[in-house]
Fold:
Amino acid sequence: MRELLEKRTGLLIGLALAGILAAALVIAGEKQAIVIGTVTGSAYGMVAMGLVLIYKSSGVFNFAQGEFGTVALCALYLLHSNDVPYGFAVIGGLLAAMLLGFLTERVIIRPLFEAPRVTLLVATAGVALLAIAMQQWLFDNQGRPIAKAFARTDRVSVFDVDISDQRLWLIGTLAVLAVLLGLFFTRTNLGLAIIGASQEPTATELVGISVRRLSTFTWVLAALLGGLAAVIAVPDNASFTPGIMTSAYLIPAFTAAVLGGMTSLPGAFLGGVLVGIIQSVATSADIFQDGGALEIPGTPSTLIVFLVLLGVLVTRPQGLLGKSS
Amino acid sequence: MTATLDSAAEPAAVVQSTAPARFRPSAAGWLARGVLWAAVGYLVLVLPLSRSGSDLREYATAACFAIVALSLNVLLGYVGQISLGHAAFVGIGAFTSAYLVTVQGQSFWVGVLAATAIGAGQALVLGGVSLRIRGLYFALITLSYGLVAEQNIFAIQEFTGGGAGQSAPKPDWFDTEWRYYYLCLGFLAVVLYVDWRMMRSKGGRALLALRENPRVASTFGINVRVATLFAFVVSGAIAGLAGALIAHGDESVSATTWDFRLSLFFVTMTVVGGLRSRAGLVIGGAFFALLPYLIEKIPGFEDLLGKVPGPVDLTPAYATLIIGPLLLLINLIQFPGGIGQQIRPIQRWMTGHRFDLHDRGLKEVQITDVRA
Amino acid sequence: MTHSQPRSTNAGRRLIPLLLALAVVAACGQKSGVAGSDASDESDASEGTSAPADITAAPTATQPPTSEAGDPTTPAATTGSSEPVTETTAAAGETTEPPAVGPYEPGDDDAAGVTDTEIVIGIHAPVTGASPIPQTSFDVGKDIYWKFLAESAPDQLFGRTVRVVFRDDEFNPQNAVQVCREMVEDEGAFLLVGGGGADQITACAQYASENGIPYVSAGVNENVLSDLDTYFATTLTYAEQAPLLIAQLQAQSITEIGLVVSDTPSFDDALDAIRATAEEAGITIAFETRINKTAAEPEQLSVVQELKNSGVGAVVLLSSPVVFIGLANQGLNQSFTPVWLGPGVTSGLNAVTTFGCPAVETGMFFSPTPGLDVIDGLDPDFNPAYVQFGGGAAADDIGLQLWSLNKALGLMLTATGPELGRASFMNTLVTAPGFDNGIYAPVEFTVDDHFGGTGAHLLDADCTLEPKQFATAEQFVPAG
Structure:
């Protein structure tokens, strides 16, 4: 029992903090922020999960994670507007994302296998910038409409905030994936091999597992997660612009992943919701606005997210749910 | 010709300090080296004089970007910490100087000095607070700080002059484009010298030892945190200086410039330039700053782009966006040591060594890992 | 020695699949809706169809022409069709020898950018960056009017043709200053034109003013710009549109509004004007907030939620199209569909309906130019000119904005007369009774007031039309 407690300190701290935060928000009259944060932050969480997956398996900060998603959106848009049924278009989108993930691993990551992680960070950023530039050119830099799978928006309402069916699917998918991936990494041979390969690559090779093949697998899996996040979250807003998953989701997702501990899949989910709540509260709370007691110039949420991130990392460098090494 | 004069003087000076005793180039070898030195000198110092004002502005910006690359290199190359918020450091320097000169009526030199000091100061504070945070986590902190600068600090109207930006006039005597270009070159030379001196000092050797192996370094009495913080402060100061120079070169500075993409761009040009290779960094910074300009100037290139099939014409604006990252990827895969690694044989040869195509100084150029 | 680059030989081959991957991305663009454009194709001239704009520099210009769609007798359509030169002379006469009076003294570069055969005009606009205008529209539309004029009335500009130089300012004011300087120093631009983006226009106009260069744009903010003596706004500024907005709200019997404004100080004057006018009219601002132009999803949803909580029937919006579409979509998901009403240029672009429908259906925006649905009635030359000179590109609203601005500039250049210089041009602007291009409400400058707009059109988003577009709800709504 004690061992279990020690193992789960992070989770307990996280849950306790979440409880305190929720109570504080209800008292402060910002209860809607809990719903808004959960609903929108789950999209961050889903992108963050892909980041965590890559980081866990290869120690890389993957700046192309967002673009895996935008490419899926592009393919979905293209297929659907050419009269492919929506379900098949979604599958096509996910396949496009996985293809980009596969090629990124094969063309960029593999030649740099021995290279430092800074180089890999820059390389993935290069992939993202290239993908965005291509979209900007081919779309003449304009947005496009995109249909959603589930049209109904007023089935569920919490604290007067309507949660669309599309969002419910997002949250549901996220929860299921977090559990499945958690089991995958702790219970299956393949999952354990991936973790082993990241920690002891030589030993893993010695026992006859190809580290490179595992690498391809994780990148494709991460790209699938990125694609899923995009094709479920973005159509709820009915339109997308070139590079949207990078410009609107990637940085909050990184923050979410780091807050959660960078190695923890539930942590990524929790971190996403936390970032969503912070952004929501910072926008609606009067004290941060012009003339408020704690007036912040510009966009209040940016500064508050930064301070939270700094605070968490200074006091707990491994993040809220991360394990200290 | 002035070119011949240059050729006589420059290599001689270099040789005295660095050439090893066992290899001395022949007379013809000296002449060949001299010609190349003269060509470089001509390209950098003489040729720009015949260009238009807006061309010279591009060259001045290129010199400033080279300074930014040197600044990032101190962090990335010497201590292995990555900053994804360098646009904020450069931008705050730019606004500091513009604010002091335009709003407070101070002189350009006060502005530049203050920008350098503020750059060092914010690095000291940010670095001091986040001393415990290392590697990629530190990268996230700088990234997040960059956003704070962009969306909070640059939203302070008195400081930045509002959405349309702050104007930043050129200093008195340097108010023509070519004089200002030389001023930027001068500052670049100063930064190069400071960088060179620093790496030859005890502190610089400590930094390198730290990068090689922090544990060993600390057993030799090197305070890891102090050394890291020192590098961060130096980097911030140089970034602030570069910002001030960019602002006054453009005579205008606005918040939109200093975004996350620019930070990535800075990292890109530094890595492609080649960490710890001063020549590579300068070339990398200048090349990426001049990329859109070069695309426009290559004759026939625009027509060639127009022939690329696509739903929309591939204009130079779009081509620049695509070519930059493409070059980055090719460079990373083919030449991980960057430009610095590629030019090393020539560089060695030019400073009076034997030409050796395989002398890529790999051990020195390769980036050691960031310790996450 | 091969130790250095073991993998480099394969790297080139490795890159090819990546490019293939990006071709997937590329494929997305195929459906981009932009007609295959061939901007370089200058279809050679058939007979000049109809007339160029006339110069109704007449006192009657204060009366906006009432438009009857399709009526060929609207002023712009008929006058000057056969004798543009005579018309010009008459107009120039009416403006009482413009070069002689007015506050502007010729500087050293007074006639820069003007030769006996050519006038160079520099335009900057964002075609990349945070809130870009489609580049294709811009490339095609930037000089169609001038091509049309050169053919239909070659003497209108006294034997000169207009060459348009275009530069992308990347939605960045600092960059706008650079490209404006380039257009003046390298391309020899006689005057500068701002194509869009309040901050970029303000920054470049400051540069133009410091150097005595005329700068013309559609109306944006008045902050800073009101102090610049070479700046001229051809249409209503955001602040000047405040009474129009409030009148529209009253017409719809809306008494409680929300106010959402982008957080740039450039909009401060408009914000103050809207607050003041609303108060006078007894309209309550129930919720007010400033929003970042790159607002994240939780921020957008929070703003929408607060608007919804405050129960307002309309939201007055002063922001970029991206923010508008974001808020409208979040609103639709919350079953919150107020009237989204705003001043300005960009939110009323058809690009907004193209990818913002159905959420933007309740959007209404004032605009200096009317919708494409009524343009044939106001200016029958526009569509034929696009067919003739557009290289196959369909006429769009960005093309119409460029056409209208260029047409107004044409009137101004003609009125200045053959002795064209920067000082005489600006003197003509401030002394002429007005310029009526038939599309804008008449443009009237005085020595002290360079905000020349006198009215605007009201556009209403219509997602049922094909293509989805902003239709004209009301033409020539007069200001003040």
